[in-house]
From TrEMBL:
InterPro entries named among the record's database cross-references: Acyl_CoA_acyltransferase, GNAT_dom, NAT_camello-type
Record-annotated N-acetyltransferase domain positions: 83-243
GO MF annotation terms: N-acetyltransferase activity
Gene3D superfamilies with a match to the protein in the record: 3.40.630.30
Coiled coil: none
Annotated TM spans: 42-61, 67-88
Pfam families for this protein: Acetyltransf_1
Species of the source: Pleurotus ostreatus
Name of this chain's protein: N-acetyltransferase domain-containing protein
This protein's UniProt keywords: Membrane, Transferase, Transmembrane, Transmembrane helix
């Protein structure tokens, strides 16, 4: 019988393509969430119904006495939905595509094993259920953990050591497994590893938004707090916020 236990293991060089795919998926899946959230917002729905009603009135497609006439308004509703959906995607897409490109071009993905071995508090972990990959988390506690420059601008920064501030660069769990809250186990594993790895590490930071509600919930449950709003994105101006977890706060929860 195949092993069906969940496990967390360190990244291996053979996992590179899988990790790159998951990181891209993690960023672009937020676009789908943003588009769905905006499309089902009461403002979008109200605009859709209003435009559709006006179009039906103009075309004279309101139902008459026959049963088939009740089908006449449907094309109008379909036609008016398309431009609204197109506008929402057009407005949301640039930010999420830029984020995905920045993540893939990051210095840490050039040589993952080397990059995350420079500090005893850094790590890149894969979450598996049996033989199935279901998530990953990358925590960077190196001296340049706050650097977000692309690879070609960061190749010379390879000093070993631990910073006082670590950054969670990548965090993803596949959607079917999120209701089990297994993402909290993965996050907890990374936090414990980081703080136990080097006493120099004082806090862990991560950028979060409501487009990853499962991650936000895990951050808050394990003691992260919002320290500042970075910016607002998308058609509905969602918040992008910086979360932080201090060593003292983490130790008080143990």
């Amino acid at each position: 019988m195949a092993n069906s236990d969940a496990r967390i293991r360190k990244f291996q060089p053979d996992d590179l393509k899988l990790a790159q795919f998951a990181i891209s998926k993690a960023n672009l899946s937020k676009l789908a969430v943003a588009n769905y959230t905006a499309s089902t917002h009461w403002l979008a729905l109200s605009l859709w119904v209003g435009l559709s009603s006006a179009f039906i009135q103009y075309m004279g497609w309101w139902p008459a006495d026959t049963v088939l006439s009740y089908l006449q308004p449907f094309p109008a509703f379909a036609c008016m939905a398309l431009p609204i959906i197109f506008y929402i995607d057009w407005h949301n897409r640039p930010y999420f595509e830029a984020n995905a490109e920045e993540a893939i071009r990051g210095a840490d993905l050039v040589d993952i094993s080397e990059y995350y071995s420079r500090s005893p508090s850094s790590g890149f972990w894969l979450l598996e259920f049996g033989e199935r990959f279901i998530g990953l988390l990358a925590l960077d506690a190196s001296l340049d953990s706050q650097n977000t420059a692309p690879a070609q601008k960061s190749s010379e920064k390879r000093k070993k050591g631990t910073s006082s501030v670590a950054t969670i660069r990548h965090f993803f769990v596949d959607e079917p497994y999120r209701p089990t809250e297994i993402q909290e186990d993965l996050l907890k594993h990374a936090i414990m590893f980081a703080f136990e790895g080097d006493d120099k590490l004082e806090r862990i930071e991560v950028v979060g938004s409501s487009m990853s509600t499962y991650a936000e919930k895990a951050y808050k449950k394990l003691g992260f707090r919002v320290v500042k709003e970075i910016k607002r994105i998308g058609v509905l101006r969602w918040k992008v916020e910086l979360y932080s977890l201090d060593r003292s706060t983490w130790q008080s929860t143990l």
